[in-house]
Design brief:
The structure holds 2 protein chains of 2 kinds. Chain A is mostly helical. Chain A has 2 domains: 265 residues, no CATH class; 223 residues, no CATH class. Chain A has 19 helices and 2 strands. Chain A has a two-stranded antiparallel ribbon. In chain A, helix 3 runs antiparallel to helix 10. In chain B, 75% of the residues lie in helices and 2% in strands. The longest helix of chain B has 32 residues. Chain B starts with a helix and ends with a helix. Classes of the chains: A mainly alpha, B mainly alpha.
Chain lengths: 490, 480
């Protein structure tokens, strides 16, 4: 299992290659790591490996459990495709060495987060992830990008420092802060005779939730996400729709289900506060997305909204809710990835940014926009696509939970799904059915030279769309795997 | 197997036919063939017994199809309408561009409606309902003018909102289901599971009625209808009012009669609210139609009003009410489609969109106006047309249902609305045939071609047949 991590760290030494070989080199590294990860996943036996000991019981250790398998598996399958897309997208860029170096390093560090088996390790890699992604956000180097990078840094590192409080409490008083399903804190507290006050633990949880939740763009710590959409599309697609933000959700999952355990916080004011934050973000993100005219920013707000679906599911503190959060983490990752890749393809081929500049481009870039439409339908929650499966699970969980906040959550989900239809499908309609006289890409206009994106960009888009549909139709095997995670069996 | 064929064939064949580059005549022949084969497949599938499960989502939630009595009834309506309007469209679409796209989505919508009628459980029906919405939007915004695109988007968003409102209801019937969640007359809810949750359940079922009723134009979610109809090409409007709006009715029937079961709802606030909403819609729809000058928009408001007759019948939650509603489904479908096709003829041949310009139209195209007249009589409810018998049965169901004041009020609303309907339809007929002394008719006949008139005649005939034999037809199909 350590083998997989070493594969990730090898990439740190990727510097200063300066020809086409670089592309092949990067892809090979990524693929090798993916293969290693999958071997590790299949052969893992759940035992932890301790790498290093700090003082006071802070250790760096790794292990593989169900949740790690899910996240690592998902990340490792997506990275090679995103890399392929990036080759074409960044073709004309000047600073490719630096870009791909950091891109690959992020992969290794994300894997480190996946495989953390206690809160200290998670925290260390979490911070490293923040640091290594800042250059990626600021890549273009212009004023907007630098601002975005600074904002991202402020929010995510600030958030992590909030979470640090939880880390300390858990590790020092909680017997190492190990991740065990059902929570290790509860047992540790009982063992030490309940010396730690419940109130303190709850406050620590709140800090942890919002701290890690900053990466998951929970209101009010969400503002970095839309600003970060000025980053190159491979960055926004992979990191801000899949890896970085999902790490936030992942960390909250670890905090809630594996450190604290549902029973410790169920019914408390902390749960209510977190649920309210999640439900508010859900709707707020959707509303802001509707108002937004820049394509990638719209999708960024959509990500914010969808992440709060996951947080909502997690904070319901029932296995069904956790299942909803898990399934949405996986399915939303796939969907959002394909949506961002389509948006990026559009932006690169046309050089345009705004939604109202999309009129009629569907005829020129049909594959891209058909895939976009399928992704949009899935995000809204139309059956036969995977988004429906996770939405159904979340609605069931909210309804089953029975409390007022659960029902409000269901209503919030429905409202936000409707808004989602509006903010995604208007783009599809614009693309394929432009109003008379407003077709910017018809023959004879300046846009008529626009062509469909190249194979390196299309293949990932199509692959993710196929995954989207496949998961929607044949969801049973995945759902039963996820249910096992949600119930703590694996 | 046949079930799946009848769903997939029109979809696949339609898409292929629309993308192959041939001349118009060959393509029209191809479309006619596709339509004929689909009709045959559906008729053969009508007698199939078993069910087909395509895919399972969760444990008891699967995507599967079967044919039952309600499905048979609606499928007849679907086939009649799609076939008749198809031939009409061959001629009408000459005035529009991009007809391949129109026909492609025409057949895909046809397939989606067939699928919905054959859905075996609420989730399958929900899926087909959503797909139906999405696939019929291109029919509405076909012209691609600002008006058409706005109308199409409004239709899309209202429909999605409606479907999403129906989603919790769908979820909850699964939650409280007894053995299996397949449509069963009388409902499949297990009362013991429901105990203690009735309040929430009823609330979400009501929201579900509003949601699925959106497609049927139930107040307050009727706003898309008057915008969508004038903007869409006439055959699309005929389909929308005629049969796609009935999909909303279908969904409500499936929800109330076949999922929840009437016993649970009888006498509850949900039933009362539903009846009142239906009556408000009937009244409001007719009044607004009366004031409207654009012919297609007038017919759109009329649709809002008329479909709520059906919903009113259903709202009394009795076999008799359902019977009356179903008669009206077929009768209104044929009459309204005929009216829209006539309106389309006025636009296609003469460019006339407003009612006041129709003076003397009967001298110029008598056959068309005769069809319009018969269809109007049916809508108003003059015997022996379909509209009369359905109103009679609905009124009778209201009186038999024992809902107190609402029981008496319902027939009154029906009668008043009949008068108002006469008020907004008969003047067109009268001014059309008797324009006054100083009207000069042109010498040449402006009657449209047979491709347009025969469908209209067929649809009129259908509404007359429903009038004479409607009760028998419904009772033959539906096993109450």
């Amino acid at each position: 299992m350590t083998v997989a991590l070493i594969g990730g760290f090898l990439m740190i030494f990727l510097h200063f290659k300066n020809d086409r070989v670089r592309n092949i080199y990067s892809e090979v590294i990524a693929l090798v790591t993916t293969v290693l990860v999958w071997i590790a996943l299949i052969k893992a036996d759940g035992s932890a490996v301790t790498l290093y000991r700090f003082t006071y019981g802070f250790t760096i250790s790794f292990g593989v459990d169900g949740l790690s398998k899910l996240f690592a598996g998902m990340v490792s399958l997506m990275w090679p495709f995103a890399l392929l897309y990036a080759f074409e997208y960044m073709k004309d860029d000047k600073r490719k060495n630096v870009f791909f170096a950091f891109y690959l390093m992020t992969y290794g560090i994300t894997l480190g987060v996946c495989f953390s088996s206690n809160i200290t390790t998670l925290y260390v890699f979490y911070e490293m992830l923040s640091l290594v992604t800042i250059p990626l956000v600021s890549h273009y180097g212009d004023h907007e990008s630098m601002y975005a990078g600074r904002k991202y840094a402020a929010y995510t590192i600030g958030g992590a420092s909030l979470a640090f409080f939880a880390v300390v409490i858990a590790t020092v008083y909680g017997g190492g802060g190990n991740f065990i399903y059902g929570g290790s804190l509860g047992a540790a507290r009982a063992a030490s005779g309940n010396t730690m006050s419940m109130g303190m633990l709850q406050i620590a949880f709140l800090f942890g939730f919002f701290g890690f939740g900053a990466k998951a763009a929970v209101f009010p710590l969400h503002d970095w996400l839309p600003t970060a959409s000025v980053a190159p599309t491979p960055v926004t697609a992979l990191l801000h729709a899949v890896a970085v933000v999902n790490t936030g959700a992942f960390a909250v999952m670890r905090l809630t289900w594996y450190l604290y355990g549902a029973d410790l916080i169920k019914g408390s004011w902390v749960q209510a506060a977190c649920l309210i934050a999640a439900e508010f973000s859900l709707v707020y993100g959707a509303v802001q997305a509707l108002r937004e005219r820049r394509f990638k920013r719209r999708l960024a707000f959509s990500t914010m909204s969808n992440l709060s679906y996951m947080l909502f599911g997690i904070m319901l503190l029932t296995p069904m809710g956790y299942l909803g959060g898990l399934s949405h983490m996986l399915f939303h990752g796939v969907i959002k990835m394909s949506l961002f890749l389509c948006a990026g393809a559009f932006m690169r081929q046309t050089g345009k940014n705004y939604v109202f500049e999309i009129n009629g481009v569907g005829r020129k870039m049909p594959v891209t926009f058909i895939c976009y439409t399928l992704g949009a339908l899935s995000l809204t929650g139309i059956p036969l696509f995977c988004g429906f499966i996770s939405k159904w699970t979340l609605i069931s969980a909210g309804a089953d939970e029975g409390s007022a906040l659960g029902i409000i959550g269901v209503v919030a989900l429905i409202v936000s799904a409707f808004l989602c239809a509006m903010y995604t499908l208007t783009v599809s309609v614009r693309a394929f059915f432009p109003m008379k006289g407003k077709d910017f890409y018809a023959d004879g206009t300046e846009g008529s030279a626009v062509k469909e994106a190249g194979w390196q960009m299309l293949v990932p888009v199509v692959v993710f769309t196929i995954a989207n549909v496949l998961f929607g139709v044949f969801s049973e095997p995945i759902m039963s795997f996820l249910t096992k995670i949600a119930e703590g069996v694996i | 197997m046949l079930i799946l064929c009848s769903v997939l064939f029109p979809i696949i064949a339609g898409v292929i036919a629309s993308n192959v580059k041939t001349n118009t005549r060959a393509r029209h022949i191809a479309y006619s063939l596709i339509c004929a084969i689909t009709d045959v497949l559906v008729i053969l599938a009508l007698s199939s017994k078993g069910s087909v499960t395509v895919v399972k989502f969760f444990e008891n939630v699967s995507f599967s199809f079967a044919v039952d009595d309600l499905g048979v009834f609606f499928l007849i309506a679907v086939m009649l309408l799609f076939t008749a309007v198809l031939f009409y469209s061959f001629e009408y679409m000459k005035m529009e561009k991009n007809e391949e796209r129109f026909f492609g989505f025409y057949f895909v919508t046809f397939g989606a409606m067939i699928a919905m009628c054959m859905a075996e459980n609420p989730v399958t029906m929900y899926l087909c309902f959503e797909l139906l919405t999405l696939l019929s939007v291109p029919l509405v915004l076909h012209d691609e003018t600002k008006e058409a695109v706005t109308a199409g988007l409004k239709y899309l968003f209202y429909s999605i909102a409606g479907a999403l409102m129906g989603l919790p209801a769908v979820y909850l019937v699964y939650r409280f289901a007894g053995a299996a969640a397949d449509f069963t007359y009388g409902g499949f809810i297990d009362p013991s599971k429901l105990a203690g949750h009735e309040g929430v359940f009823l609330a979400f079922i009501f929201i579900g009625i509003l949601g699925f009723g959106t497609k049927a134009g139930l107040y307050p979610m009727h706003g898309w209808l008057p915008t969508a109809h004038p903007a869409a090409p006439a055959p699309a409007s005929a389909l929308l009012s005629g049969i796609i709006a009935k999909a909303g009715v279908f969904a409500v029937i499936r929800l109330l009669f076949y999922s929840v079961g009437t016993e649970i709802l009888r006498g509850t606030w949900v039933q009362n609210a539903f009846i009142i909403l239906a009556m408000i819609t009937i009244f409001m729809g007719s009044m607004t139609a009366f004031l409207e000058k654009n012919l297609k928009r007038r017919l759109a408001y009329s649709t809002i009003s008329q479909i709520s007759y059906i919903l009113l019948g259903i709202a009394f939650l009795s076999d008799e009410g359902l019977e009356g509603g179903l008669i009206h489904v077929l009768s209104h479908a044929s009459s309204k489609a005929c009216l829209f096709l006539c309106a389309g003829v006025f636009i296609y041949k003469l460019g006339i969109r407003n009612v006041e310009d129709l003076r003397g139209i009967g001298k110029r195209m008598p056959v068309t106006l005769w069809c319009f007249t018969i269809a109007s009589l049916s809508l108003i409810g003059i015997p022996p047309m379909g509209g009369f018998i359905s109103k009679w049965v609905i009124g009778s169901a209201a009186l038999d249902s024992g809902m107190g004041a609402l029981s008496i009020l319902a027939p009154v609303v029906l009668i008043v609305s009949a008068f108002i309907t006469a008020g907004y339809l008969l003047p067109i007929v009268i001014d059309g045939f008797f324009p006054g002394k100083d009207y000069k008719a042109p010498a040449i006949s402006e009657e449209p071609s047979k491709l347009m008139t025969i469908p209209m005649i067929v649809l009129c005939a259908a509404s007359v047949i429903m009038g004479i034999w409607g009760v028998n037809i419904v009772n033959a199909i539906m096993k109450f």
